[in-house]
Amino acid sequence: MTEIGPAVAHPSPRLEQHPCGRPPVAWRPVLGVAAVTAMVHLLVAGRFGWHRDEFYYVICGRHLDWGYVDQPPLAPLLARLAADLPGGVLPLRLLAIAAEVGCILLVSVLTAELGGHRRAQILAAAAVAACPIFVSAALFFGTTVLDQLAWVAVLVLSARALRLRSTRAWLAAGTMAGLGLQTKDTLAVLLIGIAVGVVLFRRDALCSRGPWLACAAAILIATPNIVWDARHQWANLRMARELASQQGGTIGALTHLPILVLLLAGPPLIVLWYAGVRQLVSRAGYEHRWLLAATATVVLLFTVSGGRVYYAAPALAGLFAAGAVRVETAATARGRFGWPAAVAAAAIIALVIGLPVLGPRAETALRPINPQPMETYGWPRFVDQIARAAAPLPNDVPIFTSNYGEAGALTILGPARGLHRQVLSGHNNYALWGPPPGTPDTVLCVGQWDISYLHRFWTKVTDIAPITLPAGLTDQETAQHAAIYLCTQPHGTWAQLWPGLRHLD
User: Fold this and answer.
1) Phi, psi of 246, deg, nearest 5
2) How large is the greatest C-alpha to C-alpha distance in the chain, in angstroms?
3) pTM score of the predicted model
4) d(CA 481, CA 65)
């Protein structure tokens, strides 16, 4: 890996400039990087199975609304459409892979907006393709991978608008921001960061109507979800506070910050981030220094609010782009060999910790680093265990689960295994879809229940069987005690018990 410095060891020949004022995008090699990335993901896309969150997105999509307690409506809508296609979970995984490919292509465009030519664009694209946080997010379909795509797209369109200074360019950025807000509310933090950067370093842009029209467009597109959230007592904010509390608030976020730097970035790529910071604080990078201010604001806001560490990760793609520009400017012979090796090392780390490339036993050992691959393992076995326990019971006995993953698995995989029962839960948005009518005289309760908790609602609670994976393997269900309980003699109707059964986490 090369030392990053301002000196140019071997001046490059004159580089072609695009007529609009930025270098042309080197589409052929960048598309090659994207194609290799897509093929790697496709090789393991269906290796284990559904992720618990994918079940939830599909079920939410079947209850179409302008919002949910833990997300805006776009991801559930796309999940429903994909799940209606043949192929099981594969159409959802194709959406996730397409989103990562979009991030790779867009970061090369962002690099061009920052003045980077072919070499810089390839390096930035390869860095995103090899970055563990981007690789692991594309393991399954959900709000995280869509959020990453939206963030990088907003950065590209904002840089373009600042360069072109046209109303049309600003409206494109605002429209993309509005769509991003319909994917995940965390994009609002990026928008705050961009606003801070523009005020500090590109205040001249605010003299035109473009940025203000962009804000209006974003708010207009996001309004249906905002109205839904207001009508539901700002459920998204309550959810965010609950998640921050579980992580330990600001102190917890600070303790997790090294994970963002060391693990999610991929250790070999930290130097590229550092190069990006140096580029943006240098005289050559002054025009784009708003990007550094936006990134710093994002990290600061998520840290202070106690947000999860990976929320801020897509903003750091801008540092990959700026760092690649600086590397290209240095253009040393040593760097031409060092950076491919660094990216390759990061890619290996990303594959091992981010995708299910290893066996279930090895993935179990890696759960403390990244539990997500094992969250795609074992759901058919889980459903089979519940089906066996439910077989002796009357068909009108419902199943009540401790979380949305269990409920979604039983709803989506259950019918093919002969399980045709009402499935209920009090977890997150499932709480809004209940309570059912009547009295829960006999209920099969499934999941991570404490018997003393269940006794608050039913007098008689019988432990039927534990929920297990093959010996030595663990996921979220089996890492803690999860079991199947038969509950009878309720302490009231469903409507009376429901407030105590609801939970956000």
Assistant:
1) -65, -35
2) 82
3) 0.92
4) 34
